[in-house]
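User: I'm putting together notes for a lab meeting next week and I want to include a structural view of one of the chains we've been expressing. I don't have a solved structure, so I'd like a prediction I can at least talk through. The sequence is below, exactly as it appears in our construct file.
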Amino acid sequence: MLAGAATTIAGVGAVLALADIDSPLRAPFTLFFLLAAPAATVAIALRNLEPVGRVLASLSAAVAVNLLVAQGMLAVHRWSVPGGIAAVAALSSLILLLVLVRRLRGRTARRRVS
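Assistant: Thanks for the context. Below is the predicted structure for the 114-residue chain, given as structure tokens.
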């Protein structure tokens, strides 16, 4: 139930920022999205770590992804809030896709050996 609430808050934050809707909840929900989306995907990738280490590593990775997106957009003079939200969402989706593909390949390789 907590994961569903977090996903809803993050989704609402992304929609509020992308649609440019003025709301007092826009800033905190968008900030939550910018931290939660990359952190969740990295936490899925690091499932073999201990919980405290996984939380610290995933939050650090989320901050690093956000800084890299911001620096990249500033370097090419294409900074925009909706663009940053979209770039973070795309990178988070890409990380999740790579993790899922790696897991599926690992299962197939194990089945072939057996």
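A couple of points you could mention at the meeting. The radius of gyration is 16 Å. The chain has one domain: 2-113.

User: Perfect, that's what I needed.
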